[in-house]
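ugh ok so i messed up the first submission bc i forgot one of the chains. this is the corrected input, ALL of the components this time, i swear. 556 residues overall. if the numbers dont match what u have on ur side tell me asap before i send this to the collaborators (the ones from the other lab, u know who)
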Amino acid sequence: MGFFSKAKSGGQSNLEIQLRAVNEEVYKHSLELAEKNKTLSLLSKLYEISILALKPVELSTKLCEAIQNAFAFELVGVLLCDEKGDNLKPLAFAQSEHFKTVPTDDGSMFNTSVLLTCPQSDFFKKVVIKRKMLYTENLADICGAEVPEKMFEKIHADGHIRSTLVYPLAVEGNVIGVFILCTNRAYFDLVDYEKESMQDFVNVIAVALDKAFLYEKLAFTNSELSASNERQSKLIHFIGHEVKGFLTKDIAVFSELIEGDYGTLPESAQKLTVAALEQTRDGVRAVTDLLEASDQKKGTVQYHMAPLDFKMLVEEVMEKLRDHVEKKGLQFIFACDPSMQYMITGDHNQLGNHVLRNLIENAINYTPHGTITLSLERNKEKDASIIFTVADTGIGISTDDMSRLFTEGGAGRDAEKINVNSTGYGLFIAKNIVEAHKGTVRAESEGSGKGSCFIVELPAT
Amino acid sequence: MTTLDQIAMKIIREQELVIGPLAWKEASKVEGLHIDDQTRGEVTLTDRDPKEAVNRLVGRYERLFGRASQEVCKDAVASIIAELPPTDVPSSLQA
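and heres the new structure output, hopefully the right one now
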């Protein structure tokens, strides 16, 4: 489509008149698009600023600078409501190069210090209460008694401020502050594009600011939480070690009494002392579990990895627990192919005491009668792994309990009834250790009363 | 750049947003206006009366695209004009 028309000498033909009319029409449409483009372009710029993870002051400053630059306003700024909503505090400002150089009476540069002293003005409060834009052509309406009249004359004359517009910054109906802009034209002399698009920009500023404050609160809360967790962890360790120390001394005393180091105890006292010794050992294990879980959470457990014969480790742990199994009258079976190798790289103490012992003791504790079967095999499909299984004919695991099984403090409800001393940390610790060995652990059960099966898979060497 | 040079530059740039590179092409035909660097948007008014050169620039756009284009010229430089004494404002840009 052509944009050109040439005037013929002596007048224009009908065709030329029509062409010009078409040109004008096309121009008007292009103008509309250009204005929408400008609005979108600035909105895009404001959006880019708003998605940066900036603190509120920095964010507001960048937004003010973008708007001041785009519209060549003399002064653009944000004032924020305090928590009670009674007062406004200046947050950020952007000024034109010209405005920055306007001197005050005493020779110093006029800057936003004037506006910094008058945020309590009724003018601002009206904007907050009425939740609509107000404007004035007299800065005295805003600054009032805070600033001498001569200063206003200077600001109006040298600073070229002709009118000031103040918009409420509202998010979800709440006014969080005000947006102020000072321009060298009267409000009604502002071009339509400026008047119509300003509200869109103010809305972006309000949302961006709200988000920035939320981020700041979250960051602060996170930091407080981390500090609190750290303090709690230190306290747990301190208390844990102290308590473990006392209990260990009690174990020594009870053992000496049982061994007869202080003479033979009467039978009734002997029974009580044996029971007390067992309970104290349970106490030490519980405290050890808590300390271990705390270390797991912090990631401070040191693993001493070395070549390890997993079959031998299973047999070691079985021997330690055989008495316990026999006292309960349970059958204890270990099935594995003796011709296969079961070497892994692992921490003997962690795997032995916190994984195998934990899984097998759980099976013993939660199996009133029947069998505990341990099995060890090589994964035929994945040649690199060994599979260790502890299966029992015990109380089983309900669907509800299954979801909490390997979590901190996640003892099952049925399990708690049987083992009231359970800390709920055993499986959490076991899972962390297995995963630190690049393995997996899972549980299977057909439900309450139907036994359970714990399967550990570890990479073989 | 003088104030009137800046006014001319702002007008051409604003028109460029509406009609594209044609804005510069038409501006280059205005007597007394020299385009120093289109990419950097630098222009110089070489006329003895630079205000008249600005009037010719505004007039050129107005003849091609009508009254709307004159309003665009005025809006583009409203903030600059506001700071000029009325006698320094080209007639085509006066309210």
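quick check: The first strand of chain A starts at residue 75 and ends at 81. that seems consistent at least. The CA atoms of residues 291 and 386 of chain A lie 29 Å apart.
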